[in-house]
Design a protein that fits this description.
about 40% helix; two-stranded antiparallel ribbon; mainly alpha; 3-stranded antiparallel sheet; 8 helices; globular
């Protein structure tokens, strides 16, 4: 488990999307894949919460959305929406909908609320549906740095996503809330 000082040291050395991912992992207790698979519709800024769908054991749960990530997350959502519009214009705007949702909600696969908040950096084929898009939440191109067993100056132990998640306790929340 990382100390409050170690969490701060790691966050101080990150910026942009990497920092946003780590803040979501720490502040919400997310597993890495849960953070990468978050969809726009799963966020509730008014209630300060998000829904984690099909988590471990195929269960869904509600967890907190840290106030500290509101602004960077809103900026990321704007970028995601622009990318979605560009993808629609190019014919790549569809997303994979789980279960029978594509039959239940006609044309929902083209609505931006179903997009992952952290879309892929390249166009790819979704393996379950064959849909070609940039919507996959598994964008290892930029997600790899925070997932590696890394050493940071001022942090005696290696920082891994599981340690970040384990550090998510009340005494560490102040780091993420800007206290």
């Amino acid at each position: 488990m990382l100390t409050k000082a170690e969490v701060s040291a790691i966050l101080d050395r990150m910026s942009g999307l990497q920092q946003l991912i780590v803040q979501l992992l720490y502040g919400s207790g997310l597993r890495l894949t849960e953070g990468l698979q978050l969809r726009v519709k799963d966020l509730d800024f008014a209630q300060h919460q998000m829904i984690i769908r099909d988590a471990k054991g195929n269960e869904s749960r509600v967890t907190m959305l840290p106030t500290k990530v509101f602004e960077p997350l809103k900026m990321q959502l704007q970028r995601t929406k622009r990318l979605h519009q560009q993808d629609l214009e190019r014919g790549y705007g569809s997303v994979y909908l789980p279960y029978a949702l594509e039959r239940k909600y006609r044309n929902a696969e083209r609505e931006w609320i179903w997009r992952c908040i952290l879309p892929s950096i390249s166009i790819s084929t979704e393996p379950r549906s064959g849909i070609v898009s940039s919507t996959s939440g598994f964008l290892w191109g930029w997600a790899a740095p925070p997932t590696k067993n890394r050493r940071f100056e001022g942090v005696a132990r290696r920082a891994t996503p599981s340690k970040r998640r384990l550090s998510n306790s009340r005494k560490f929340k102040g780091v993420l809330r800007g206290r």
